[in-house]
Each structure stands twice: as structure tokens, then as C-alpha cells.
Design a protein that fits this description.
Blueprint: H1 8-19, H2 38-46, H3 59-66, E1 72-75, H4 78-87, E2 94-97, H5 110-132
Parallel strand pairs: 1-2
Helix pairs in contact: 1-5, 2-5
């Protein structure tokens, strides 16, 4: 879960689907939503993962679609963490906060901007490996 479900949480969800065993239900959402960021698509393509079809969701969209039934919520921004803590105050859902910088708005030439997104991708991949262990069989 992140702020707008346009960069960090789609990257994290797609990496998690690639790196963890089958059978783990994974969904990404944001407190609000914005269009999928083309730099996020580009750096994930570099990693061999296509997120171009991702449609940003809000937490409210997710709740309306399938209810709110998660064992773990990983939050990537202060705004998302605050929202998750509010939503889970009376639930047994575990919430983990992984502070992740927002690469949107990085100034400079294109390569510098892409580097900021790569750092987010690589940092999230490392956190996922630390938290969930080495991949067994990828999710589909």
C-alpha cells in the first residue's frame, strides 16, 4: 500500500508475485490513485516484469471489490501507513512499514530519474527477499 498506487506499490506487488511461492494472495492499493507512472513501467521492464496493464486502485476500491481480508499489509509511505493503522485498529491484520522514497518528481535528465526508480525497485526487491525469503516457485 502506498500513496497513489502508481509507482511503489505496483512495483512491490509485481516483485512479490515473482519472488514468493504460489498461493500467496497479493494485491496493491493506494490511499488515493493516479495514473500508472511510465518510469515505473520502464524500470520493471528492465527487470523482465510487465506492469503496463496495472490499473491503480484505492483501498476503498479494493474494499468494495472484495472486502478487506488480509493477514499482512505492507505500507510504503507515511500516508499509507497511517491509513492502514486506522483501518486495522480492530482487526488481527499485521501492518509493516517499509519507508520507501517516492521517486516521482526527481529532477534532472531522464537517466537520473530512471536511477531513482531503479533504487526503489531494487530496494523493494531486497526488502521482499529479507522478509519472505528466497523464491521457490513464482506466482502467476
Amino acid at each position: 500500500m502506498c500513496g497513489q498506487n502508481s509507482v511503489r506499490s505496483p512495483i512491490a506487488a509485481s516483485l512479490l508475485k515473482q519472488l514468493v511461492p504460489r498461493g500467496l494472495y497479493i494485491q496493491s492499493a493506494g490511499v488515493s490513485k493516479a495514473e500508472l507512472d511510465p518510469f515505473a513501467v520502464a524500470v520493471m521492464n528492465e527487470a523482465g516484469i510487465d506492469i503496463s496493464k496495472h490499473k491503480p486502485w484505492t483501498v476503498a476500491d479494493l474494499e468494495d471489490w472484495e472486502g478487506f481480508n488480509f493477514d499482512l499489509i505492507v505500507t510504503l509511505s507515511p500516508e499509507a501507513h497511517h491509513k492502514a493503522m486506522q483501518m486495522t485498529a480492530t482487526l488481527a491484520t499485521e501492518v509493516e512499514y517499509w519507508p520507501t522514497p517516492d521517486p516521482v518528481g526527481t529532477e534532472g535528465r531522464r537517466e537520473l530519474q530512471l536511477d531513482a526508480y531503479r533504487r526503489v525497485r531494487d530496494g523493494l526487491r531486497e526488502k521482499i527477499r529479507e522478509r519472505f525469503g528466497a523464491p521457490v516457485v513464482a506466482n502467476e
